[in-house]
Design brief:
2 copies of one chain form a homodimer. The first copy, chain A, is an alpha+beta fold. Chain A has 2 domains: about 280 residues, Zn peptidases (Aminopeptidase, 3-Layer(aba) Sandwich), CATH 3.40.630.10; about 110 residues, Alpha-Beta Plaits (2-Layer Sandwich). Chain A is built from 12 helices and 17 strands. In chain A, the strands form 4 sheets. In chain A, strands 3, 4, 5, 6, 7, 8, 15, 16 and 17 form a 9-stranded mixed sheet that branches. The first copy, chain A, has a 4-stranded antiparallel sheet with strand order 11-13-9-14. In chain A, strand 5, helix 3 and strand 6 form a beta-alpha-beta unit. In chain A, helix 1 runs antiparallel to helix 3, helix 3 packs across helix 12 and helix 8 runs antiparallel to helix 9. At the A-B interface, strand 10, helix 8, strand 11, strand 12 and strand 13 of A face strand 10, helix 8, strand 11, strand 12 and strand 13 of B.
Amino acid sequence: MAKVDGERVLRDLRELATFGAYKTGVHRPTFSDEDIAARRWFVGKLEEAGLQGSIDGIGNVYGLSDGPGAKILTGSHIESQNHAGWLDGALGMIYGLEAARAVGRGVDVAGWCDEEGHFGSFIGSRSFTGLLDDDEIDRLANKYDGMPLRDALAKAGLAGVPRRQVEPGRYKGFIEAHIEQGDTLISSGLKIGVVTAIVAIWQYRITATGEQNHAGTTSMSRRRDAGLALVRLLAEIDRRFPELAGPRTVWTTGRITLDPGAPSIIPGRGEVLFQFRDADQAVLDRLDAELRRLVDEANRTGRCPMEIEVMGQSRPALMDETLQAALEAAGETHAPGKVLRMPSGAGHDAQYLARVMPAAMMFVPSIGGISHHWTENTSDEDLVLGAQVYCDAVERALNG
Amino acid sequence: MAKVDGERVLRDLRELATFGAYKTGVHRPTFSDEDIAARRWFVGKLEEAGLQGSIDGIGNVYGLSDGPGAKILTGSHIESQNHAGWLDGALGMIYGLEAARAVGRGVDVAGWCDEEGHFGSFIGSRSFTGLLDDDEIDRLANKYDGMPLRDALAKAGLAGVPRRQVEPGRYKGFIEAHIEQGDTLISSGLKIGVVTAIVAIWQYRITATGEQNHAGTTSMSRRRDAGLALVRLLAEIDRRFPELAGPRTVWTTGRITLDPGAPSIIPGRGEVLFQFRDADQAVLDRLDAELRRLVDEANRTGRCPMEIEVMGQSRPALMDETLQAALEAAGETHAPGKVLRMPSGAGHDAQYLARVMPAAMMFVPSIGGISHHWTENTSDEDLVLGAQVYCDAVERALNG
């Protein structure tokens, strides 16, 4: 069985967390100086581990194992959300590195660039799986400071460097480790999550058009209040969705904007950003139909025409059954009775890898379920246990 | 009876509308170059009419009539909302000027500065009625470009000029003419509104505090969604207020802000600007109690603590019965059967004048009920009829 060095894993995680250290977390946006330094540091660690290290033309980090036979691809991502946690992404990188060291030949490691979306949407894993073209790269820019992606790549010394794409037949599969980012494991005393599917996210922009008017002189009966129309729709969603949702469905109104947004003016226009997530296509279809029914009903009975615009409808990504079995077997070996099969409510690079090879994910517990915040954390004990389970599962998958 | 020159009234209104002309309306913010020029032009018109014209240290324009006996104070305001209508304020100024010309001695005219609130809240009429101190003037600045009020006054040549305050015993009352800004008159074919009271505005900021979290990994049962808590409160207000409101009560949510306002983040904080208006103190008290009850209930049953902050609670201003009778008698003379007693849903300087003397207001119809927009308008016929009724009422009040 793969011999994991728990102290080494913790040491490497802590060293990676020095790049962009922020309070007890990190601030390491894609292609920031700290992020570029972290990528170079990681290439050095890969080479120390006997892998052939490189960074490709989209910023993906690779450590390739030599030798014959189909390999297991490991890894996650190196950059962080702004002022966020030290383990989100980093955990999967160091576990992959440890698997290469502990399991030996046959384990490749990858760090998918910009999973956190500072420039785009999963550009690293989409580039590797053939789903990102040069036109899109030309168009993308940093969402916070506006720097074009091309300029950021040049700053990182990657202008003109080829982008690496998946080599057919090289891999038996991809296994990504990640913190759970929720509280399912921690609140049940469980230790390992075996991801069954990565949920789809269906994102909508709903707009209502009313009539901007004076809030004092316009009688209630004459008003066409776009804000009130949206409040009524959201109240109906709140009433209906629990009846139609699956056990793990989530739905969220992230933003409500009323125009012009002044205390004494009836809103003439309103906009809502609304999304739901589930791993079950039937649930997604049912909620989409209900949302459209509620908007139609509002248009039939209300006085503010509403429009619904689809901003994104990803597909659920099912995880490979054989790799899930390897993770579960490894989990039951090291944490008997503390393994749970569960969907991932967050998006991950594994959802794109799943399109070109068998893919799976393993979760470790998140203290308080917190993520995307610098207080994100996992106990040392769980970090070491997770590394052991992960490396064991990679070895099983490699030899299975 | 006062002999009104309808053509002169229309000509003066149109000339005033050339100061800051914007499409078919005007853009004449307080102390803009156009506004200062309009004030000076108006002083000239007052002097042509035989009044003693001046501008005081807060920017109020005055035309004072000589001779003995208690006088009637007329007027309204000269500046406009941004990119707004040509009659809002201007109508009452030109009607006042016409009353001085048509009725003769005993009619004073005033243009209250900044009724539209570019710098503060009714600073002109509050200065005249003794409700504005120098400290407040020191603190106020333009809401759009930040220029301190003191600098704007200096730019207008008014630094160091004394502020005029009401002279005890000089007036029998104040009568302000204004466009209705609603559609009550126009939609009923009526011509003259006699204002019974100016409504009070009770303005609130309601905040909910939840827990910012990941919209994919945080189960519905664990969420503390500040946005959803506010949507539920607003839906309850929408359900309960119609049962408790008076026939003319209005209530408005002008702004909803969710923090951080991102599609995939559960709002950790939300804020709503909510107001209601009525002329009846009992209704105001009832709605305030209900709003507080709903917030208390949300705090008892919900998971996101809410706070309610009073931003303003003005009092209803009752209009003087004798002056209302003068307006009604004049209205019935020139537009028999087309006069309506009604409250004003908008605030006006008359609500401050009412604190120091008998005060009244007269409305003319607004086409489409539109105001605070450059398409605001009233037919020439209604403008001339309104001038006749107004001047007749001023004469009756003066001699009554």
